[in-house]
């Protein structure tokens, strides 16, 4: 993978004014973002969230997943701490793309869970690739993170690329009647470290 830094700019949000950094994968043309707040140095872990694009949840307010809720919660926590980074990766639908995600939703409407729907379409449950994080984090001079995630596979992937995950911080928010089954599948089939009781502690 050849990832190049393109430009940075200010990004005012309801929580803080972040710096937005744009990166381009010159092989695929995919564009990835990092939102940062505060200064980084190599001797202190950075509060971070690795967030894969979810157009339906992040921008269209879908209640079928917890993605948009997690995105906002991560930005809120970073703003409260005054320092941190959100890495926004363009790999919709756990890597299957937007239109295939809609096809998977159609199968879920007929009774499949999120893993079964992907498999019925011929995909693995999770096709995400995190290799682009390495040049992004090198550019930002981040070598150690306190990672906001419930997904042990994400922690393992980052560690396999040589990044120090100093701490895993749960991020449970947004449970509702439309996504309760989805969250249960993430726990039972994808190994996410959360229970329904965790969501009662939403901030």
Give a written overview of the molecule.
The chain is built from nine helices and seven strands. It has 203 residues and is an alpha/beta fold. It has a seven-stranded mixed beta sheet, with helices on both faces. Strand 2 (17-25) and strand 3 (31-37) form a beta hairpin. Helix 4 packs across helix 5. The N and C termini lie far apart (38 Å).
Order of helices and strands: EEEEHHEHHHHEHEHH
Please give the radius of gyration in angstroms: 17 Å
Q: Care to count the β-strands?
A: 7
The average pLDDT score comes to: 90
Strand content: 15-25%
Distinct helical segment count: 9
- Can you tell me the overall shape? globular
Main beta sheet: 7 strands, mixed
Structural class: alpha/beta
Unreliable parts: none
What percent of residues adopt helix (DSSP H or I)?
25-40%
Strand order of the largest sheet: 1-2-3-5-4-6-7
Cα separation of the termini: 38 Å
Strand-helix topology:
Elements: E1 3-12, E2 17-25, E3 31-37, E4 46-52, H1 55-58, H2 67-81, E5 84-89, H3 92-95, H4 98-109, H5 114-120, H6 133-140, E6 144-148, H7 152-160, E7 164-169, H8 180-188, H9 196-199
Parallel strand pairs: 4-5, 4-6, 6-7
Antiparallel strand pairs: 1-2, 2-3, 3-5
Short structural summary:
This protein is α/β, with parallel strands linked by helices. The protein contains nine helices and seven strands. It has a seven-stranded mixed beta sheet with strand order 1-2-3-5-4-6-7, with helices on both faces.
């Amino acid at each position: 993978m050849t990832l190049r830094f393109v430009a940075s700019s200010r990004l005012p949000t309801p929580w803080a004014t972040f710096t937005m950094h744009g990166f381009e994968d010159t092989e695929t043309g995919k564009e990835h973002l990092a939102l940062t707040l505060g200064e980084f140095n190599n001797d202190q872990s950075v509060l971070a969230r690795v967030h894969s694009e979810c157009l339906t949840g992040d921008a269209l307010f879908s209640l079928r997943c917890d993605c948009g809720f997690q995105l906002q919660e991560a930005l809120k926590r970073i703003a409260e701490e005054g320092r941190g980074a959100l890495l926004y990766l363009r790999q919709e639908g756990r890597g299957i793309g937007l239109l295939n995600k809609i096809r998977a939703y159609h199968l879920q409407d007929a009774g499949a869970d999120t893993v079964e729907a992907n498999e019925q379409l011929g995909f693995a449950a999770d096709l995400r690739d995190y290799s682009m994080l390495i040049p992004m984090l090198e550019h930002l001079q981040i070598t150690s993170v306190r990672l906001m995630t419930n997904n042990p596979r994400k922690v393992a992937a980052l560690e396999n690329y040589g990044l120090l995950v100093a701490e895993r911080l749960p991020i449970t928010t947004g449970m509702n009647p439309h996504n309760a089954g989805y969250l249960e599948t993430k726990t039972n089939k994808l190994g996410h470290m959360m229970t329904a009781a965790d969501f009662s502690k939403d901030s």
